[in-house]
Amino acid sequence: MRVLIVGGGGREHALAAGIARSKLLTKLYAAPGNPGIARLGTCVDIAADDVDALLRFARTEHIDLTVVGPEAPLVKGIVDAFEKAGLLIFGPTRSCARLEGSKAFTKELCRKHHIPTAAYRTFFDAEAARQWLRESTYPQVLKADGLAAGKGVVIARSFDEADDAIQRFMIVKELGDAGSRLVVEEFLQGVEASVLAMVDGRTIAMLETARDHKTAFDDNRGPNTGGMGTCSPSAMLTPEGLAQVESQIILPAVHAMGRDGKGFKGFLYAGVMITPGGPKLLEFNVRMGDPEAQVILPRLRSDLLHLLHLAAQGRLDEAEELDWDPRAAVCVVLASQGYPGPYATGFPIYGLDDASPSADVMVFQAGTRQKGADIVTAGGRVLGVTALGTSLHEAREVAYRAVARIRFQGAHYRSDIGRQDAEMLTRR
After folding, report:
1. Cα-atom radius of gyration of the chain, to the nearest Å?
2. In the CATH hierarchy, which fold is given to the domain comprising 191-427?
3. Most confident segment among 78-92, 213-227, 353-367
4. Are strands 153-156 and 140-144 parallel, antiparallel or unpaired?
């Protein structure tokens, strides 16, 4: 099978590594890919959101299956374009991608279909938002409605902080049109968890749980990022809690989207807050989370390509029960100094080969590029170092030993990825 992966980050590297293990694979392409993916297949210089160029490439190279990693091409309608051309592709249509492309759309869907989530208000006018927030209690969560590459959420602890977010999002247009509409949510108390499912429009296959670590620094301090590391399984979700998320959040959303056209097909990610009153939805993503993919996919023993091929055809019900490695996984993100704020790039990365002495350690490349004989930094989140272990404690130890072997100027990472989950699982 000839396969095209759309995207070039750590998530796409993890997808490529899983697909490359399949006996069904004959040729693997990635657009644009990265130097790590280039070791597994052929990278082509096409941007992930250049739908027309990707469609021409898929036709020319007789691609059997296209797998879309990031959200931007999904929201732009890549699946609609490929399906119209008769090409097989795994991912949601533009209509279904609104679950991630518009927070206001998702909140309204939750209201209509009784999906538990935070109370909210939506504003189109900056002054109306200001007036409401002047009389609010804090903290409040302010979200730009559209795609904002992880930069569209502010937890405001005072009116001054809320007013600053309104100014940046709605007046200055820091995020472009994404900030034209503002969603203001109540602040939920609890712990976060990530729940993912593979969906073919009718059938849902739940994936193993994971926990992302969002803030830049240890002990949940600093600004939010796209994720500084993950662990799987998540100790935050009991089997009963996971069953609640599936029945109260995942299933109703999939059924609701099924009433609006062809139904949801792709990876559905639910970021949830485990509150004293049960799990509540924080956000939907219509693709795998980037750090989550780097701990979930290495634990999947089933043939990933076979599953994606079945799901793209609406035949996921024909798949056998998913087979998971019982070991735990931890992924530590190495980021550029200054991330998620301004940062410099172009620094050589040393020790990549030394960091993965066995098959139980994988270094997924995200913000990298090839410069002559060197691989250099090219983004905020540069690498994801994933390790498997018999427990989260062991996986943490192995991952951090691997991290210590990698060097680049300004490298920054958290030292507590998976620590809280490991301690909780030990106590149970």
Report:
1. 21
2. D-amino Acid Aminotransferase; Chain A, domain 1 (3.30.470)
3. 78-92
4. antiparallel
